[in-house]
Amino acid sequence: MPNYIIEGGKRLEGEVVVSGSKNASLPIMAAAILNAGTTKLYNIPKIRDTRITQDILKFLGCKVKRGNDKIEIQAKNIHRKEIPEDLMHQMRSTVILAGALLGRFKEAKFSYPGGCDIGARPIDLHLESFKKLGINITEEGGFIVCKCDKIMGAKIDLDFPSVGATENIILASVYAEGVTKITNAAMEPEIVDLADCLNKMGAKIEGAGTNVIQITGVKRLKDISYTVMPDRIEAGTLLCMIAATGGKAKLKQVVPEHISPVLNKLRECGCKIVESKNEIEIEAPKKLKPVDIKTMPYPGFPTDMQSVFASMLTTAKGTSMIIENIFENRYRYIPELRRMGAKAVIEGKTAVITGVRKLSGTTVKSTDLRGGAALVTAGLCAKGKTKVTDIEYILRGYEKLEEKLTSLGAIIYKEEGE
Ligand code: UD1
């Protein structure tokens, strides 16, 4: 696995373009299964998670052509409805492909998904929802086998507004008989992007972006071209990295309202933020003020930003309190930050961070995607050289991270590890 080497202490300045959203690309690539023709998608980031999805689509029988940020998926001749175990284990969001296979073929076979180890991450809400749609679920030799003759529209009240479960219900019910109504649905922008893409194909989905989503089954979908939304978590990550170095920069191709809670917290830290239609400018103070954050489902503060934000706060002037409400195992990066001199204690869901004057560079290990990004943030503002190992995790979700940071004046490069 390669490592990142970072020479810290460089103030980030300049302009950077945000890539397409990972978390919107994955369900939208799955949605292409529902169209028996060709779906052309743009702004798909070139990262490991989209490559794995692409490999599974090919395995199922899709023809996939990949350009730079473009992907063309021809799903006419899908001949397999089973997601291979090794690929399923590499990424949790492969479970989304089940909803799409069920929607189109009324059958899907898969094992329990993998992904970053940030908590238990069960799929009970997905499976319960499938059952409500009339899908029969059995377990055979470690595989979950889902089958039915017809998907029947149903009322589904989610116990928790799960992003993945909401996406899976939408995908499974696009061709259902009648109407499916999801209450307590997730309201994330990625859900809106999926619904917009499917509606462009001819689906009938109303209410995406609110907590009640209604899907009226249709008979067929058509070929389309669709451009995926910008990655709001990459945007938030870059802003925190810039702020951690006391920098001043502009982000392009971003939707500021998607990260309002992050922008508000950065303002509370003393950053000047100017939002325009597709751009955000940030100017950080020399020393950040501490703030408290609590992760919540959208439109609350995103759990995916918790680690990077906390890392930025390790050199703020005072004490910050973080509460992680979504995933129970999302503080695994904190012991690594401590090795760089951060003062942070964890108590259950809470982390208390007392700002120090400077972190010092050392060797630290990525624990998961966003935890890895938190260590890069720390390395950028630390004194001396930081080596971040196990960066495969980071490469799953950030496109050209080191190139983007280099263009802002950071010194960061990849080194081949053992
Ligand atoms: C998605 C995002 C991930 C983000 C998360 C929360 C993708 C590919 N990933 O993940 O980056 O951190 O939303 O914003 O879009 N839960 C259950 N049972 C279920 C499903 C979920 O208990 O069947 C729990 C999870 O364990 C977790 C919470 O619900 O505690 C949120 O999970 P969910 O919203 O489903 O997240 P993902 O879709 O996995």
Overview of the molecule:
With 418 residues, this protein is α+β, with helices and mostly antiparallel strands. Helices cover 31% and strands 24% of the residues. It has two domains: 3-19 and 230-415, UDP-n-acetylglucosamine1-carboxyvinyl-transferase, Chain (Alpha-beta prism), CATH 3.65.10.10; 22-227, Alpha-beta prism (UDP-n-acetylglucosamine1-carboxyvinyl-transferase, Chain). α1 packs parallel to α2 and α10 (306-312) runs parallel beside α12. The chain is elongated and about 65 Å long. The mean pLDDT is 95. The structure holds uridine-diphosphate-N-acetylglucosamine (UD1). Uridine-diphosphate-N-acetylglucosamine is lined by residues 23, 26, 92-93, 119-126, 160, 162-165, 186, 190, 303-304, 326-327.
The helix content is 25-40%
* Distance between the first and last residues' Cα: 6 Å
Average of per-residue pLDDT values: 95
Strand content: 15-25%
CATH arch. level architecture of the largest domain:
Alpha-beta prism
Quaternary structure of the protein = single chain
Helices, by number, come to: 14
Largest sheet descriptor:
4 strands, mixed
Count of distinct structural domains: 2
- Which of globular, elongated, flat, extended, rod-shaped describes the shape? elongated
Briefly note the CATH topology name of the largest domain.
UDP-n-acetylglucosamine1-carboxyvinyl-transferase, Chain
